[in-house]
Amino acid sequence: MVKVDSDMTDHTRYETVIGLEVHLQLNTRTKTFCGCSIKFGAEPNTQVCPVCLGLPGSLPVFNREVLNSGIKVALSLGCDIQKTMKFDRKNYYYPDLPKNYQISQYDQPLSGRGKIGIKLEDGTRKEIGITRVHIEEDAGKLLHSETDSYSLVDLNRTGTPLLEIVSEPDMRSPYEAYEYLVKLKQVLKYLDVSDCNMEEGSLRCDANISIRKRGAREFGKKVEIKNMNSFKAVREGLLFEEERQREELEEGRELTQETRLWDEDKRVTVSMRSKEASHDYRYFPEPDLVPFEISADLVDGIRRAMPEGPEEKKIRFAAEYGMGEKDIEVLTAEKDIADLFEGAAGLSGDRTGACNWVKGEVMMHLKERETDVKGLKLSPGNLAQVIKLAGEGKISNLVAKEVLRESIDTGRDPYSIVKDKGLEQVSNADALGEIVSKVIRENERSVSDFRKGKDAALGFLVGQVMKLSGGKANPKVAGELLRKALT
Amino acid sequence: MDNPKNEITNEIVEYAARLARLSLSEKEVAVFKVQLGGILNYVSQLNEIDTSNTPPTSHAIPSLLNVFREDVPVKSLPREEALKNAPDESDGFFRVPRVI
């Protein structure tokens, strides 16, 4: 028995337990409790007022849109919206928090439990529980100079609305945590209530991770990891920490409950030895804000107006369009991609064409330009024109790709591009005759190859016709003309 | 920190000061112990009221609910105004002793 045990890998001896806390910055126009703008990129301390500066005598008033967005998010995660919610003060002292407390929600949050489904490596589905969604305000930004003994404080971000989405400790590997995060982001992005950009900080993730002997009922000592600023960092940070904890236990050391920071450069987690270890936030009800009753009418109204989520869209695409799973995955990955496809399919009347153009050329441009659909300047109408022009043979496929590129670059409509540049496909035998003769004259070798029975040589000759015609020749007609001339 | 008898000890004053990042002299601790104790004693008169039939509330006017503002931007403070009370500033930032 002992031998078997020592031969077992770490992976089978221990079980990993992970829970994630995600902070989502909402894209409302104004802050949570005052009318300051939350537009990104303003000069430091130009979007502040007595309320978010915590000046004496100022009073917070709750932004209605924050509640509406919060309800959307909670509904999309299948969470119970609570009938009554209130705000509480979470007290701590740090220069990014001018009031010395953060307005948050403690025992009466916006929502109770929900869940989200993820796909595991073996293709099976697993549900990850959501513990709660609550509303809180963001803190300011600190800049630490390398050289002098000061920190600089910009309070523009102070009071920006955040939703905290807390998961149950349901994930059993960094892979599952990563999948949960990807799925969560997809669902949230569909709602259009946040940019959901981890690199820019509009979506942030802290993780709690512990390991225990397989089969144990008690959880191990929990470590919180912070400072993971990308999806990749979350996966790597968790993989590192899982391994570190295993090693500690294997070598007979005790783990401590602590907060550790992910060091992106060194790719390790480092203990954050806080001088103030006690998490005594002294929560108490925020006396400056009244409680909120969330009526069933309000929730129903929001539910009815909610955009279709990714899972619903997948089901509908399968039923309505009879598409394969792979195509559906690509087309529903983001709401904007799905909308572009459906818009172009409707306007062009060519669903197959729209599917092929979106998953081919459009995806290629998204990747090449490292942008999203909004960054492409490509309307469904313009894409539909490309699909029609190519589908009806008015322009060759080669030209169609160039026209699409130009339309993406300039936002111009493809019909005008084709007309202005005279790019219509030439299918007329008389018009192509001269080019065909020229190609035959100038490519003796291929011509004789073809005559000797090498069919592939014809492909080369067609290519030459395409080249000389500036891509405008109809390749099918060119092929026929060549064949006729050479046999 | 549990304190069922509302008794303010030196340790409680020091603990509260630590949370608030204040450093107090022994003399100040003694002064605040008496003052905080006095406040607690005064407020604890409320304990004499029978509240067994009163539902808990977090606010004075339980009927006042759902006070919202619309999501419409208003003018922020001019930066000079915002920074005016700050003990120190630099390039439009508040400047504080290094915290990391």
Please describe what this structure looks like:
The complex is a heterodimer of chains A (487) and B (100). Chain A has 18 helices and 16 strands. Chain A has 487 residues and is an alpha+beta fold. Chain A folds into three domains: 289 residues, no CATH class; 114 residues, no CATH class; 58 residues, Arc Repressor Mutant, subunit A. In chain A, a hairpin with a 4-residue loop joins β13 and β14. The radius of gyration of chain A is 30 Å and the shape is elongated. The N terminus of chain A is likely disordered. With 100 residues, chain B is of the alpha+beta class. Chain B has a domain of 48 residues: Glu-tRNAGln amidotransferase C subunit, N-terminal domain (Histone, subunit A). Chain B contains three helices and three strands. In chain B, α1 packs across α2. Chain B is flat, with a radius of gyration of 21 Å. Classes of the chains: A alpha+beta (487), B alpha+beta (100). β9 of chain A pairs antiparallel with β3 of chain B, so a sheet runs across the interface.
How many distinct helices of chain A?
18
> How many helices of chain B?
3
Which ranges of chain B are low-confidence, i.e. pLDDT below 50, for 5 or more consecutive residues?
none
How many individual domains of chain A? 3
Largest sheet of chain B: 2 strands, antiparallel
For the terminal residues of chain A, how far apart are their CA atoms? Answer: 81 Å
Largest beta-sheet details of chain A: 8 strands, mixed
CATH architecture classification name of the domain at 1-48 in chain B: Orthogonal Bundle
Uncertain runs of chain A are 1-8
Number of strands of chain B: 3
Q: What would the average pLDDT of chain B be, to the nearest integer?
A: 90
CATH topology value of the domain at 1-48 in chain B: Histone, subunit A
CATH superfamily of the domain at 1-48 in chain B: Glu-tRNAGln amidotransferase C subunit, N-terminal domain
Whole-number mean pLDDT of chain A: 91
Gyration radius of chain B, to the nearest Å?
21 Å
Note the overall shape of chain A. elongated
Q: Count all strands of chain A and give the number.
A: 16
Oligomer: heterodimer
Task: List the secondary-structure elements of chain B in sequence, H or E.
Answer: HHEHEE
